[in-house]
Write a structure and sequence with these properties.
Length: about 180
């Protein structure tokens, strides 16, 4: 049945509010949004303080720019999971849509497998690199361990993998 916008309404495909996956999905988005908003606020304050001290007080803060850069990196990796949740990442589907249904499914399977492998590699090697190499290196201006900025890759990858798996489960339920 189509609604007034021409979109299909199928109430069987709507997620049930009490399922574990739906609750986990909501919780994961809330946690990600909380950390993303917190990082964004710290980033904005850091930039504003940096500009104020540099141009008004003519006494620049050496750490403000570095903090904003690491915040931007964290935002990018946190946003990756949210982008996957809403299926808003860029994809090239022109040629795939021209293929027969069997090849379309095969391409989708290969692409999904590639995404999962990539995210697993980013998580495993990212944690290893952040823990083993980050503890011996320090940031230039902040003087903190490089583990904190380097953890953005595996943490963002883990969030993206969770969202991707939830997305695959939702797709699978729509097919059944």
């Amino acid at each position: 049945m189509a609604n007034s916008f021409g979109q299909q309404e199928d109430y069987l495909m709507q997620p049930k509010e009490n399922t574990f996956f739906h609750q986990f999905d909501k919780w994961l988005e809330k946690v990600t949004n909380f950390f993303g908003i917190s990082v964004f606020i710290v980033m904005v304050i850091s930039v504003l303080l940096g500009v104020f001290f540099r141009y008004v007080l003519v006494n620049p803060l050496v750490w403000a720019e570095e903090l904003a850069i690491y915040g931007m990196i964290w935002l990018g990796y946190l946003g990756m999971g949210i982008t996957i949740k809403y299926n808003e990442h860029p994809s090239l589907t022109f040629f795939v849509e021209k293929m027969p249904p069997f090849l379309q499914k095969l391409c989708k399977l290969v692409a999904n497998t590639g995404v999962i492998v990539f995210l697993l590699v980013a998580i495993i090697w990212g944690f290893d690199y952040a823990i083993n190499s980050g503890q011996f290196r320090r940031t230039g201006a902040l003087g903190s361990s490089m583990t904190i900025p380097q953890l953005s890759v595996p943490v963002g990858g883990l969030l993206a993998l969770c969202q991707f798996c939830l997305h695959l489960i939702k797709e699978r339920r729509k097919e059944v």
